[in-house]
Amino acid sequence: MRSKATRLLDWAVLIGLASLLVYLDQMTKALVRQNLAVGQMWAPIPALSKVFTITHVQNTGVAFGQMTGLGWLFLAVNLAVLIGVVVYYPRIPAGQWSLRLAAALILAGDLGNVIDRLRTMIHFVRETGSLWQALPRAYVTDFLDFKIWPVFNTADTCVVAGVIILAYTLWRAERREAAQQAVVSDEPPRGSVSEFWRGNSD
User: Catalytic residue at 142?
Assistant: First the structure.
């Protein structure tokens, strides 16, 4: 049974890291909105402008600009993921810091985009007076433009990194478990003929 202090520390790690990443996400988006018009590009490294630029994009779709106008659907998915992380997090075994890091990254990325969609949805509700008209217009601010990939943001990066860490950790755990089962199955039962001959040959 884990102590109350340990559980509090676990939650402090989740909330602290997620808060820091959400702050970074919201600050970078705010800087883009304040300094670039929608569609405007800025090359922080001019020599690499054909490879990477900061491009202000209003994404009404899902991650990486897909499914334009259906961001409201992804908002529901975002909220479900937030609930899932909060419910799953206390069940992570002690010492599994890679899973805790993955949870914090996914939570931060999810929350960062939820904040964007809720903020812009409220804005359009006030503007149009209709929730149904506001929902498909709600957007997130994207700005990381690598040219060969749809424009994305810091929150998207957090989610992808978290999913990769989660998948890798679970994959390693499955391999470790499979290896242990293979070792057990290769061991002859005590009193078997093979064990008898092995013991006598020594």
Answer: yes
